[in-house]
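Run log, item B.
One chain of 148 residues. Sequence copied directly from the ordering sheet:
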Amino acid sequence: MTDSSTQSIAIAAPPERVAAVITDFASYPEWVSAVKSAEVVEEYEDGYASQVTFLMDAGVLKDSYTLKYEYAEDLSRIEWRLVEPSQVQKQQEGSYDLEPDGEGGSTVTYTLAVELNMPMLGMFKRKAEKMIMDTALKELKKRVESLA
């Protein structure tokens, strides 16, 4: 797997509320700008999604891919990996770590590693990962805080 990137953001909501938004895959097209559809294709016995197929359209990059999810028992960590290579991605692994901030909010740490099917200079790859992560965390924060 390629090197991973990590970023964090403070969200004015408890970790349980953040986890509820992250695990509500059906609503992703409402608040994740690049996701056009998200379909849960397999669930665990507890009702949480184990596999989700996404249709992404981020302008120049369009892709359909399926992620396999695993969860910490208390949902303090939600992690995923690409089930099989897609048109654009060879591999993807990521996670959200949710920690209470002691004041009723959360610190969310997003870690992502993506290997594309096309060559990309390291400098441009890191810049793209940073943009993806910045956008994802800001959209998550906006969605969670708007539901408060």
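Observations after the first pass:
- The first strand starts at residue 5 and ends at 11.
- The mean pLDDT is 91.
Flagged for discussion on Thursday.
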